[in-house]
Design goal:
Elements: H1 10-24, E1 29-32, H2 78-81, H3 84-92, E2 95-98, E3 105-110, H4 113-122, E4 127-130, E5 135-140, E6 146-150, E7 153-156, E8 162-163, H5 177-184, H6 212-228, H7 233-248, H8 256-268, H9 273-286
Helix pairs in contact: 6-7, 6-8, 7-9
Length: 289
């Protein structure tokens, strides 16, 4: 993979042309929705009924022509990237992403100033890309992807995707021992899920649900749906949060314990506390809560 030539064509020629340019250098690319997440699985591929794509944990390959398998849909073939279904996705896309592991690189995603400070004090210099919240440090070599290896730090490589934010600056170096140690060791206990207050309805009306068992069954089903996700985890978590809030968000019966259970299930699938909080907030906003 090479990032030697700055990419300034995106605004002028659009996501597809940028994707084709990146793919020509060997970078497997995929479209992201406006919310920066991958496109959800199509009905035929929902819940991995199709058998999955190459390099996924489930059998494959899937021959679905749509870009609907998150990182596993990333491609370099211009015929695939320019096909009718992909072109439609590029028109709706909010950004271009790539599969770092598929390109033989590792992205250390530093999400805040403290994380950037840690990297500068701990990791060897390499190619860096400025992000909206921090920096991406890109190393040569692929490793296992692990979210939240420490506060504000995610490792994105195999079975993951990263947003393309430009070629960056500096010479790329090999994945350092410190990063190998972070992904090979079992991460420390995850932080307690963030409490999210759900506003009670105006007037404090009574909960319309038939019994506490109805709410309990709904939360249990939501946990199971998140736990069973084998692809498009971001989309599954958001969709599940949306369904829970749609059913229970206006009557005031949700407690922090219920929300904590959902966050715990999502974090067990690799979502960071920040991603959980963002997904919950976005779902509440979408419903006008």
């Amino acid at each position: 993979m090479t990032h030697a030539t700055p990419i300034r064509r995106a605004a002028r020629t659009g996501h597809l042309d940028l994707a084709l340019h990146l793919a020509a250098s060997g970078l497997p690319v995929l479209p992201l929705r406006a919310g920066k997440g991958p496109f959800g699985n199509c009905p035929a591929c929902a819940e991995n009924a199709c058998g999955g794509r190459p390099n996924m944990k489930t059998p494959g390959p899937c021959v679905c022509p749509r870009p609907c398998h998150a990182w596993a849909a990333a491609a370099t073939d211009p015929a695939i990237l320019s096909s009718a279904s992909w072109t439609a996705a590029w028109r709706r896309a909010g950004a271009v992403a790539y599969h770092p592991g598929g390109a033989g690189v590792t992205v250390v995603d530093l999400d805040n100033a403290a994380a950037v400070g840690w990297a500068r004090a701990t990791l060897p210099a390499t190619r860096t890309v400025t992000t909206t919240r921090g920096e991406h440090w890109i190393y040569r070599g692929a490793v296992r992807s692990v979210n939240h290896v420490r506060e504000g730090v995610d490792i994105k490589s195999a079975m993951s995707y990263a947003r393309w934010l430009g070629p960056g600056t500096g010479a790329m170096t090999d994945v350092p021992a410190a990063v190998h140690e972070l992904v090979e060791e079992k991460p420390a206990a995850r932080p307690v899920p963030r409490a999210v207050a759900v506003p009670a309805p105006a007037g404090g009306r009574q909960c319309p649900h038939r019994s506490p068992a109805y709410l309990e069954r709904g939360i249990a089903m939501a946990e199971q749906r998140i736990t069973a996700a084998t692809s498009a985890v971001h989309s599954t978590v958001y969709g599940t949060f949306l369904a829970v809030l749609s059913a229970h968000g206006r009557c005031g019966c949700l407690t922090e314990a219920h929300i904590g259970r959902l966050f715990t299930a999502a974090q067990a699938k690799g979502e960071s506390p920040r991603h959980c909080a963002d997904a919950w907030s976005n779902a509440a906003t979408a419903l006008g809560l």
